[in-house]
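Protocol step 4 of 5: obtain the predicted structure for the target chain.
Materials: sequence only (see below). No template structures provided, no constraints applied. The aim of this step is simply to have a reference model before the mutagenesis design in step 5. Sequence pasted as it appears in the construct record:
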Amino acid sequence: MDRETLADELNDLRKQVSGVTGALIAGVDGLLIAADAEDRIDPGAVSALGAAQLGLSLTITSAVDQGAFRHAVVRGSGGYLAVYSVDSTALLVVLGDEGLDVTRLHRAALLTIERVRSILAAVIANAC
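Step 4 output (C-alpha cells):
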C-alpha cells in the first residue's frame, strides 16, 4: 500500500487547516493504514477508537433514518476529534486543538477524502 502518499495527504490537511494537530487513515476494522500525528498520540489506539465511533455513528444514523453517515465530531475541553467515512473500507480521523475551525476542516476533509479514495482504489486495482 502507498502509505507514504497517504501520509502526505494527511500532512497536507494539517497544513491547510489551522488547529489540526494530527490525522490518520484506518480500516473500518480499526487497523491503522497511515498517520500524521504528534508523538503524544498512539495512532493505533486512535484508529481503533475512530472505527468504534464510525460503527456507533452508522448505527445511530440508520436508527433515526438520517441517511448515509458522513462525519461525527467529538469536542472535549482540549480540542476535537472528527471521524469521516472514506468509503466502505476506510475512515479518516482528524484531531484538532481548541482553535480548530470545524467548518474549514469539513471543507478540506472532503477534498482529502476524494484523494484518499483514489489512492486506495489504485492500490486495490494494482493488487488484482
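Step 4 remarks: DSSP finds three helices and five strands in the chain. The CA atoms of residues 122 and 128 lie 10 Å apart.
Proceed to step 5.
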